[in-house]
Every structure is written in C-alpha cells, then in structure tokens.
Design goal:
The protein is an all-alpha fold. The protein has five helices and no strands. α1 packs antiparallel against α2, α1 runs antiparallel to α4 and α3 runs antiparallel to α4. The longest helix is centred in the N-terminal third of the chain and has 74 residues.
Length: 201
C-alpha cells in the first residue's frame, strides 16, 4: 500500500498543533480563573480591613479616655491627694480575619502581586498583636477587681500601673493599625465598594 508521506505529515502536525493549542488554552483559562479568584479574595480582604478599621476607631477614643483617667488617678495617689474613684472599662473589638483565612485556604494569595501580599501581612500581623495583648488586659482586670477593696495598698497601685502599661501598649497598637489600614485603603480600596460585599454574601 502506497503511503502519502506529505499527507501523513500534515495530519500529524495538525494533531500536534491542536493538542498544543488545547493545552495552552486550558492553561490560560486556569490562569485567568486563578487571578480572578485572587482579585475577589483581595476585595474581600479590603472590605474586612475597612470594617475592622471602623471598629478600632471607636475603641481608640475610649482607650484614650481611660488612660487619662488612670494617669490622673495614679498622680493623685502619688501626691496623696484625695482620689476620684477609679472606674475604667476596656472596649475590646473582635476583629475579623475570615477573609484572610479563606484566601489562605483557596491559595489565592499565591496569585497576588508581592506588594499586596506584603501589605496584607503587615496589617494582619498588627491585628494579631492587638488581639493577643488585648486578651491579656482581661486577666489584669481580674487582678484589679480582686484588689479593688484595698485601693490604698501598694499591690493595688502595682496592678493599676500594670493595667495602664498594657492599655498604652494596646492603644499604640490600635493607632498603628489605624495608620497602616488607612494607608492600605488609600492605596487599594478605591476600586472596592459595598456593592462587592453584597454580591459576595
């Protein structure tokens, strides 16, 4: 049987080209889907940072007021003046990190530009530091409550000063978070609005 070499070669090349094109299109489509998922995940993170920022702006004002009260109380005690009753509260916001967790699970952070990933890491590191130190304050408040009937004792003053130190630490962390997240939103938040939030819910 006579074989048409030219025809066979043409058919072979056609099959190879078709396979290569199919693989290329599949890879392109997967890359497109990966980047689309990464963009959607990033938009959710931007909205989460925005919500957390609003929470902490309110806390910042309350913590600043409590710090003023505690500082004045310690001053009066050190000068042996008549003290006003020590009454402080600590307002703790449970900041969300669910958008970041989802992005980690679906591995969409891998497809974001490095500058965005670094910005996200910085904000959530500050958020974690806030959460850890804010939790410690509740333990100190328990110690404070235990000494409240001995407000003249050195032990009570020591607990108050410890409380004030951690309040300052948390307050400075809140201020850092506000500055970082505001800068993040100024840079990346202009293209994200509440409509995206509603569409994803």
């Amino acid at each position: 049987m006579k074989v048409n070499t030219r025809k066979a070669l043409f058919e072979f090349l056609s099959i190879v080209i078709a396979v290569v094109l199919a693989m290329g299109l599949t890879e392109w489509r997967q890359s497109y889907l990966n980047h689309k998922l990464a963009d959607a995940s990033f938009d959710k993170i931007v909205l989460e940072v925005k919500d957390n920022l609003e929470e902490l702006k309110n806390d910042s004002l309350k913590i600043a007021k409590d710090l003023e009260t505690m500082t004045e109380w310690v001053r009066q005690l050190s000068l042996k003046e008549k003290k006003v009753p020590l009454s402080v509260n600590f307002s703790y916001s449970f900041l969300s990190s669910s958008a970041l967790e989802v992005a980690r699970i679906n591995q969409s952070l891998t497809f974001l530009p490095t500058d965005k990933v670094l910005a996200i890491a910085e904000i959530y590191a500050t958020q974690e530091f806030y959460t850890e130190n804010a939790a410690k304050i509740f333990d100190i408040m328990g110690d404070l409550q235990g000494e409240i009937n001995q407000s003249e004792s050195p032990e009570f003053l020591a607990v108050v000063q410890k409380f004030r130190f951690h309040m300052r630490l948390v307050f400075n962390t809140v201020r850092a978070y506000i500055a970082e997240s505001q800068g993040f939103l100024d840079k990346y938040g202009s293209g994200v609005n509440d409509q995206n939030k509603n569409e994803g819910s």
